[in-house]
User: Fold this.
Amino acid sequence: MKRRAKAVFIDRDGVLIREANYLGSTKNLQVLKGASRALSILRAAGFKIIVITNQSGVARGYFTMRHVRLIHAELKRRLAKAGSRWDAIYVSPHGPDSRHPWRKPGVGMVMAARRRFGLDLSSSYLIGDKTSDIECARRAGCVPILVRTGKGGSDQKFRARPAVTRSDVLSAARWIVSGGDGVRR
Assistant:
């Protein structure tokens, strides 16, 4: 029987890049320290790397999906220059009141990646800085990891608790590849 792939789902804003509140241009794009190294560590350990991001600025009319694609192209270029990459990126352009299944804490983006890559979600992790990320991980059956960068869980929109809290995405990646201290859901 073929073994299913494992993944680390990573939120974009506040985890891979500096939180900018509706980033609509590459001029304000700032990759967080350690982000590229984190992706490299996870890839070397055999994880698929899937970026999942809510971008309600599209629904609000602050910017378009074209702007989002330009930002992702630039982010991909910067990460590649530093020697790392992701396997896929999924975007929810839906507003907070849309109840769209792709908008976190909905699990639509996670399930799309599961189907595409044949993922075992029980062996996968989700790293985020908001309680919606943690709730999404819980609903999908992934191990939820909260990082203190970005919102650091201060949004308090959901009561979901992470399996662990780490200082940043690099610390989270190191925790994952070290075996996660045996912590599960």
